Amino acid sequence: MTWLYLAAGSYLVLANLVGFLLMAADKRRARRGAWRIPEHTLFAVALLGGSLGAWVGMYCFRHKTRHWRFVVGMPLILAAQLLLAFWLKTKIL
Asked: What is the rounded distance in angstroms from the CA atom of residue 66 to the CA atom of residue 91?
C-alpha cells in the first residue's frame, strides 16, 4: 500500500509542477506577444491533478487572475479533487 501512496504523491508533485510551469511559460509568452498555451490545456493539466500548482502559478505570476473562468474554476477543481481524495481515503482505509 505504501508504494501506491508514493506513486500517487510523485504523480501529484509532477502534475502540480507542470501546472505551475505552464502558467509561468504562458505569462512569459503573453509578455513577448508570442504563441500562447491554450486555455483548455491549462485546465486539462489542472483536471489531471495539477490544480494547486496552476492556482499558485496564477497568483505568483499574476496571470489569468482577471479571467473569471480561472479565478473560479481552479479553486473549484482543487476543491473537487480534495473531496475526491478524502472520499477515496475513507473508502480504502
From this structure: 38
Q: Transcribe 23-89 into DSSP letters.
A: HHHHHHHHHHT-PPPPHHHHHHHIIIIIHHHHHHHHHHTT-STT-HHHHHHHHHHHHHHHHHHHHHH
Alpha carbon distance 86, 34 (integer Å):
40
Which residue has cell 504523480? 11
* Residue 19, burial from CB neighbour count under 10 angstroms (0-12, 13-18, 19+): buried
* Residue 74 confidence (pLDDT): 97
- Whether the full predicted model's pTM is greater than 0.70, yes or no, is yes
